[in-house]
Amino acid sequence: MGWPLPGTGIAGFRARAARVAAAGIFNLGIHYEHVVMPLLRALDVLAMAGLGPAGQQAQERIGLYAEQLRTQAARARDVYARMSASAMHR
Q1: DSSP assigned state of 89
Q2: Could you tell me what percentage of the chain is helix, strand and coil, using 3-state DSSP and rounding each to the nearest 5?
Q3: How many distinct helices (H) and strands (E) make up the chain?
Q4: What pTM value is reported for the model?
C-alpha cells in the first residue's frame, strides 16, 4: 500500500513536509493514532471474524501495514526528538 501524498510533485515538498512533521503539526505518529487506527477500529477490520481465505489474507496485510506504520512513526518520533534536543543545545 503506497499512495503518494498530495503535493509530492511540488518543488521543496519533502523539506516542507519534514518541517511540518518535526514541528508536530502532522506526522506519521499523528496519522497512525488519529487517522489509521480509529478507522480500522471503527470498521472492526483487525478483529473481524468469519472471513474467507482472501479476507483473512487482506486482514493480515492490513495488520502488518498498521504495525509497520507504528514502527516507522516511533522511529520518526525519536529522530524528531533528537533534532529538537540538538537545536535546543545550540
Answers
A1: T
A2: 70, 0, 30
A3: 4, 0
A4: 0.76
